[in-house]
Amino acid sequence: MYTYNSLFAYQYCSYVINIVFSRQRRRSGMKSKLPQDPIALFSSYMGMVDVPRLEKDAGDDPSLAGKTLGLVNGSAWIQLWSYYFGRKHLPGVKLVNIGNEAIQLNFMKAHREGKPCPPESNVRLFADYARQLVDLAQVDAVMVT
């Protein structure tokens, strides 16, 4: 059950986010990047990604059935690609993704500044993410995308 404070915080955050994004969209033409049919977009996305489940996935290849692959992504947008190609080439393997855009931005900044790439902080995060996948999702293997 939601408390009054959590509902107020949610409504306030939604209000602020809408103001900020509406201003940004007007300035940057962001609205043109939004899909014309968001229901079709999310329906297609959820059809491929599905929702997390505790049960193992079943597939046509018995050698892959019941396996879980942890995917450490260098950015959030890579997740869609990893689901697509993972489902295509590893049917029956449960895919568990982790990663965020801050990693990619940090890499891009280091590259622009002529610093070592990947940055040491990114490597440490990837190692932490891999441990989290093993500890929390009991993956059989980890792949950095």
Structure notes:
The protein has 145 residues and is mainly α. 54% of the residues lie in helices and 11% in strands. It contains 5 helices and 3 strands, in the order H-H-E-H-E-H-H-E. The protein has a 3-stranded parallel β-sheet, sandwiched between helices. Strand 1, helix 3 (78-89) and strand 2 (94-99) form a beta-alpha-beta unit. The radius of gyration is 19 Å and the shape is flat. The model is unreliable at 1-8 (pLDDT under 50).
Brief characterization of the structure:
The protein is mostly helical. The chain has five helices and three strands, in the order ααβαβααβ.
What keywords describe this structure?
145 residues; mainly alpha; 3-stranded parallel β-sheet; 3 strands; disordered N terminus
What level of helicity do the residues show?
A: 40-55%
Taking pLDDT < 50 over at least 5 consecutive residues as the criterion, the unreliable ranges are 1-8
| Form type | flat
Instruction: Give Rg in angstroms.
Output: 19 Å
Q: What pattern of helices and strands is seen along the backbone?
A: HHEHEHHE
Largest sheet: 3 strands, parallel
Mean pLDDT: 84
Give the termini separation: 39 Å
Instruction: Give the number of DSSP strands.
Output: 3
Q: Going across the major beta sheet, what is the strand order?
A: 2-1-3
Beta-strand content bin: 5-15%
Structural class: mainly alpha
Provide a count of the helices: 5
